[in-house]
Every structure is written in C-alpha cells, then in structure tokens.
Task: inverse folding
C-alpha cells in the first residue's frame, strides 16, 4: 500500500491530506491506519519521533467519531502543554473539511473556565495533559464516560514524567469497552506494564527496532576534560557556522547558565526549562522557530514539545541520567527526511555510557576530535567567502561606488579581499590562534583503570596525614589550586608525612611549575615526579581507605584551610583568566 487513498480514508480527510502536502503515508501510518479503521481493537505502536504518529492515530479517530454528535468520543493524553497544543492544531488541520468538528485542548497554566467552555461547546475530541485533565474530572467539568477511543501519546515520556497515577485515575472514568491506542518512541518496562494493565490483547506495530534511533541521524562523541565542556561546545558551534541546534543539559540550572554564557559570548542562544514562565517559554520557542535563535539550550522535559523540522545538530552537553532519554534527544534532529547529527561531549568518566547507548540505539558512535582553532578559522573564512559569493549585489550601493573606488584606488584585488575578510576573520583568528587542544586521548579506558595508562605521571608530595589530609581532601586541594577537573587528579595515596598522586602527562609541566616555591603554613610544599608508578595491588588500597576515613575532616574545616593555602603562594604567577577575549559572533537573522 502506498497512497492515502488505499488506506480507506474518506474524501474530506483525503482533501485535507492533499492540502497538507502529504503525498505518501509514513511507515507507521501505513501500518496503523488500516488496522484501526478495520477493527475496534487496542494497539501499541512503537515508532521514532518525527515518523508521523499524530496522523497515524488522528486520521482513524476523525474517520470513526460521529461528528453530528456533541458527545466527547475521543480522548488523547499527551505529556506536555506544547505537545497538547501541537496535536490539537494538527487535528484541526486534518479535520478542516469535517463540518461541526470541535477539538478542545486541556492543559495547565491557562484558564480552566475557558477550557471548560470549549468542552461544553460539544468537543468530540479532547486533547489533554494528565494533570489538568484529572483536575477537570474532579471538578466535573468534563464527561469522559462515553469515550470510545483513548490515545496515550508519547507514553514513555508521560511515565517518565510521573503521570502514571494520573493516567490510571483518568482512565478509571472511561468505559471498559473503549479502544486504547498507545504510541511511544521507546518501550521501557514501564510502558510494557501500562500496556498490560490498560489494554486488552493489543496489536503491536513496530517501525524500525524498538528504541532504535532514526536512520537519518549520525552519532558522534568528543572526549574532553570536564572543565573544558563549555569551550568544546563553543568550538563545535563555531565549526558549524549554520548550526541550528538543541543543546541538552541535565539540570535547569546548567541549562540557564550555558544559555547565558553563550549569549554573553555573542551567540544567538536561548534557554528553555521549567523554571521559566509559560510566557517566557512561548517567546523562546517562537524565536527558535523563526530561527532568531540558533542554539536552544534545553532540559529534557522542556524539549519534549519541540517539533521543529530543520534542526541540524543535537548537542548533548551532558549525557542524560537515563540512557533511554538519549533516543528522545537525538530524535529532535533528522526529522522529515532530513539528515542530522547528534553530538555528545563526554569526559573520561562518562565514556563507558557511550557503549551502553550504542547497544540501545543499535548504532555506532564515531569518536571525533574537537576541531582545532585553526580548523575553525578556516571553516569560518570559507563560510564567509561562500556567503559573500552567494549574496546578491544591492544596487543601492551604486551611487556610493565612486567614493569607495576612490578610497581603494591603490589597493589591488588580493589586498582588497584580504582586508575585506579580515573585518570578520581577525576576530576568530585572535581568539583561536593560541588556543589549546581540547581533546583527551581515551587510552586508559574510562579513567579509572589507571594500571593500563602509560600516559600519566606519578608525583611525590611532602604533605600527608600529619598535615590533616585524607585522599579526598588532598585531591580536592590539588584540583583547586591546579585548576584541574574532577578526573584529572587521580590515584591519590596519602601516607603519614607524604603522599602520591597522578595526573595526565600533559599536565606535568603545569604541576611542576605550580609547586615551584609554593608555601603552606610557612613551609615549602614540594612536589617531585615519583619513580613509583603507583601500581600497587588493590588490597593495600582498601586497607588504606579504611584508615583514611578516620581522618576525614568536616567539610568546613577543609575549605577554610584550602583558601589559606591559595593565599600563601609565594610565586606571583597569576591565575589563568578563564575566558577573556572571546570572539563575539555576529547575530544572524
Ligand atoms: P511524531 O509524533 O511521530 O513525532 P509527528 O506526528 O509530529 O511525528 O510528525 C512529524 C512531522 O511530519 C510533522 O511536521 C508532520 O506534519 C509531518 N508528517 C506526518 N505525516 C506525514 C506524511 N505522510 N508525509 C509528509 N509529512 C508528514
Ligand atoms: Mg508525536
């Protein structure tokens, strides 16, 4: 079957499909629509985001409900307000020739009386988020006792968001003989159990492999030190001048912070997370849809409603806690037949998660290097050259040409080109010319199996337990004074009057430089490279650990001592200023 006509939809619906410009039903539509039209049965459909699930349940529902009746016959539950509004808008388009059709959207954060009014007008279909729906039921503002079709859309996400109780409670108000259609991108155990609980002998439709990611998305990861995450993000953006992306962070705070930093650095970026008001979120989404925002920094929950087709890159600034969430993230790109890239910035301690994700999405990641500063300069220069080449000349300039020509009378073409491009290029060049390599080699595995690593240096330091350190506080202290990341100081071994620790070889010079003339409590703290490679067996470590615990100090005490340490440095080397002279990006429309 390859046309909508073949699927058995009525002429009003076919006309709407033509208007929408859909020429061919998608896989999930081909499988779901005829089945749902032919039988009154429960259905579980698993398909990636962007595969056209809304139409897969929307058209059969529109075909089956009685438009001449004003009774509510269909209920669609969806996880977020954005999605709820999106589905409502789609259904209205699908049903634009169905005279008398009323679709009501029910969601939090808007007037409940207004929504009740919409329902009262005789909504045959209600599209709702679970929280508000439950509220309306308990206030007797809706009657779903006669519905014949219920849809659980994005079921995995609804369960992720903790709507299990609400869904159970809502469905308890619906008739037993209705049909339930469950749509989901992934099939975690929770979804399987909800299917079991609420459905009777469902037909199962799977498009692609369960939990598999879309074919059109390629997956890349970049291994950097945790502290270089933000710099790496900027480089990835700079190396892709036409990027239109969603950047995922784990927490609302990080989301806000990263977006703010990007804006400060001249990128067109915006934040989307649950601490923003609905109005703020709407504004950000509008700007993103209009491409006034090139980089949307979002939390997983807030990004669920995003249905923007041209996203070129998804960047995982941090990996999600739940590996399954990665499928949702990467599904934001590669939509509607386009290709997309999902990039992951990882530190050594997280790199093992990549393997687990590969197993779930059944695709390989490509390990790539963060582009060097000079590579970025080249990309930017060529992008600018192409842009200039493709720009149509504005003839309003004609009348000024004589004066401009006079100014450049003695400049030859090459010189003129160089000058012209330098206006933009120099900004990038100045920023990147002395930039360091951000890539971390992944020899040594996840950064925990140090015995394999030949690429690290072991040091002796003349402070130990007598000075009040245990392995944790010494590690904290070293990380702080050396400005190194969480995983950059390792194998800290504290003895009575001295200790050992390791860093990557690349940090060796930094460590030795720092501890030249470093004084603490009036005494020189001395660091030397140790001959002992620190490959002692596990037993001694465990024994030591037990002892170390007894020497743990309360946090406050540790902190105050550390700040004294940094205050007593005798060298006058200045701290590396974090990120000065960043290149400012011109904002694009
Ligand atoms: P999903 O719910 O699976 O994530 P959507 O239902 O939101 O996907 O559809 C994704 C996009 O594809 C929407 O913009 C939709 O209008 C479009 N679309 C759906 N079905 C078709 C089709 N048969 N042909 C072309 N575009 C389609
Ligand atoms: Mg959908």
Result:
């Amino acid at each position: 079957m390859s046309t909508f006509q073949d699927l058995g939809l009525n002429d009003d619906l076919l006309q709407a499909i033509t208007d929408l410009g859909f020429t061919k039903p998608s896989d999930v539509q081909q499988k779901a629509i005829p089945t749902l039209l032919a039988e009154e049965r429960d259905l579980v459909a698993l398909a990636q985001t962007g595969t056209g699930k809304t139409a897969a349940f929307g058209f059969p529902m529109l075909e089956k409900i009685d438009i001449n009746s004003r009774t509510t016959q269909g209920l669609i539950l969806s996880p977020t307000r954005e999605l709820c509004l999106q589905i409502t808008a789609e259904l209205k388009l699908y049903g634009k020739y169905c005279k008398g059709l009323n679709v009501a959207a029910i969601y939090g954060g808007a007037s409940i009386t207004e929504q009740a009014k919409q329902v009262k007008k005789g909504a045959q279909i209600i599209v709702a988020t679970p929280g508000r729906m439950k509220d309306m039921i308990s206030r007797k503002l809706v009657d779903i006792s006669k519905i014949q079709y219920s849809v659980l859309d994005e079921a995995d996400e609804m369960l992720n968001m903790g709507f299990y109780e609400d869904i159970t409670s809502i469905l308890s108000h619906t008739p037993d003989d209705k049909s339930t259609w469950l749509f989901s991108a992934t099939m975690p155990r929770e979804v399987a159990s909800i299917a079991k609980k609420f459905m009777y002998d469902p037909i199962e439709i799977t498009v692609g492999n369960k939990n598999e990611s879309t074919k059109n998305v390629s997956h890349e990861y970049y291994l950097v030190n945790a502290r270089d995450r933000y710099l790496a993000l900027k480089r990835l953006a700079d190396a892709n001048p036409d990027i239109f992306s969603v950047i995922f962070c784990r927490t609302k705070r990080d989301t806000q912070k990263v977006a703010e930093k990007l804006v400060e650095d001249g990128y067109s970026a915006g934040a989307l997370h649950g601490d923003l008001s609905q109005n703020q979120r709407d504004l950000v989404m509008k700007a993103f849809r209009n491409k006034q925002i090139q980089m949307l920094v979002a939390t997983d929950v807030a990004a669920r409603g995003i249905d923007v087709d041209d996203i070129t890159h998804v960047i995982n600034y941090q990996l999600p806690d739940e590996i399954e969430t990665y499928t949702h993230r990467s599904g934001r790109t590669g939509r509607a037949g386009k290709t997309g890239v999902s990039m992951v910035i990882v530190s050594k301690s997280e790199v093992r998660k990549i393997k687990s994700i590969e197993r779930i999405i059944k695709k390989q990641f490509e390990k790539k290097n963060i582009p060097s500063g000079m590579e970025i300069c080249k990309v930017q220069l060529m992008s600018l050259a192409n842009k200039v080449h493709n720009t149509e000349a504005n003839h309003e300039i004609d009348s000024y040409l004589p004066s401009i020509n006079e100014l450049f009378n003695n400049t030859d073409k090459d010189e003129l080109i160089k000058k012209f491009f330098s206006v933009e290029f120099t900004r990038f060049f100045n920023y990147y010319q002395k930039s360091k390599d951000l890539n971390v080699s992944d020899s040594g595995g996840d950064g925990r199996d140090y015995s394999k690593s030949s690429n690290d240096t072991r040091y002796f330091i003349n402070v130990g337990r007598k000075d009040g350190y245990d392995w944790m506080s010494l590690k904290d202290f070293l990380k702080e004074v050396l400005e190194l990341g969480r995983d950059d100081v390792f194998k800290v071994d504290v003895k009575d009057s001295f200790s050992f620790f390791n860093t990557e070889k690349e940090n060796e010079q930094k460590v030795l430089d720092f501890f030249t003339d470093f004084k603490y409590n009036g005494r020189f703290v001395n660091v030397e490279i140790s001959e002992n490679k620190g490959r002692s067996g596990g037993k001694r470590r465990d024994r030591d650990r037990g002892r170390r615990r007894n020497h743990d100090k309360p946090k406050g005490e540790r902190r105050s001592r550390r700040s004294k340490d940094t205050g007593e440095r005798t060298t006058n080397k200045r701290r590396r200023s974090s990120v000065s002279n960043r290149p400012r990006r011109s904002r694009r429309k």
Notes: The longest strand covers residues 217-223. The pocket of adenosine-5'-diphosphate (ligand 1) is lined by residues 22, 24-26, 29, 47, 49-55, 307, 309, 336 (CB under 6 Å). Confidence is low (pLDDT under 50) at residues 444-453, 536-582, 584-589.
